Amino acid sequence: GENVEQHPSTLSVQEGDSAVIKCTYSDSASNYFPWYKQELGKRPQLIIDIRSNVGEKKDQRIAVTLNKTAKHFSLHITETQPEDSAVYFCAASYGQNFVFGPGTRLSVLP
Amino acid sequence: DAEITQSPRHKITETGRQVTLACHQTWNHNNMFWYRQDLGHGLRLIHYSYGVHDTNKGEVSDGYSVSRSNTEDLPLTLESAASSQTSVYFCASSDPNSAGGSYNEQFFGPGTRLTVL
């Protein structure tokens, strides 16, 4: 079955700096890779996603890149702001299901 | 507006008791999922359903059961609660054929915090 690894587990950046979170997956059949943001005490919410036929996707300050050959994908957040502080989860599709990474706790320091 | 809800939001129970967590969605999604969230483990799939009367075991299904008698609801039952089942439980739904939303996006409910003493 699918296995998703995510690094780092915690990340602290200064406000205005960039943050990068990396994930790897094992099943070459995975074709959809969403990223979810979970604020403290809240539900996970989709922030960006990418399909396997696309190498990069950008939405304002966030972007995701995908390397199918290496089976890894990354989340990039530029010009970080305090409201970006949260836990971020990557996921890889497994049929109609998702396998989630263990999460990255991002702290944006003022 | 369409939504997904869970009840109760918080539950404290004793070891050995049967507990049922409710999940209700009004998007008419075919797919519904139950996850548990524990520190360091992310979201782990317990059970899932692709439609009425369809149920499947996920990665951590031992001690849990689900039933799907209609499109809107997927209740999760802990047959005999154990302390190891203390966790936050999230229900989610998706339908790749639904208008709007991202491809195969899963929409999460607000979660239920369950404590087994």
Summarize the structure.
Chain A contains no helices and 11 strands.
Estimate the helix proportion of chain B, in percent. Answer: under 10%
What is the CA-based Rg of chain A, rounded?
A: 13 Å
Distance between the termini of chain B: 37 Å
Query: What's the quaternary structure here?
Result: heterodimer
Largest sheet of chain A: 6 strands, mixed
Decide which structural class fits the backbone of chain B.
mainly beta
Using the alpha-carbon principal axes, give the shape of chain A. Answer: globular
Helical proportion of chain A, percent range? under 10%
Structure characterization notes:
The complex is a heterodimer of chains A (110) and B (117). With 110 residues, chain A is an all-beta fold. In chain A, 0% of the residues lie in helices and 59% in strands. Chain A contains no helices and 11 strands. Chain A has strands spanning 4-7, 10-14, 19-25, 32-38, 45-51, 56-59, 62-67, 72-77, 86-94, 97-100, 104-109. In chain A, strands 2, 4, 5, 9, 10 and 11 form a 6-stranded mixed β-sheet that branches. In chain A, strands 1-3-8-7-6 form a 5-stranded antiparallel β-sheet, with no helix packed on it. Chain A starts with a strand and ends with a strand. By secondary structure, chain B is mainly beta. Chain B is built from no helices and 11 strands. Chain B has strands spanning 4-7, 10-13, 19-25, 31-38, 42-51, 54-57, 64-66, 76-78, 87-94, 107-108, 112-116. In chain B, the strands form 2 sheets. In chain B, strands 2, 4, 5, 6, 9, 10 and 11 form a 7-stranded mixed β-sheet that branches. In chain B, strands 1-3-8-7 form a 4-stranded antiparallel β-sheet, with no helix packed on it. In chain B, a hairpin with a 3-residue loop joins β4 and β5 (42-51). The radius of gyration of chain B is 14 Å and the shape is globular. In chain B, 39% of the residues are buried. The model of chain B has no long low-confidence stretch (mean pLDDT 93). Chains A and B meet through β4, β5 and β10 of A and β4 and β5 of B.
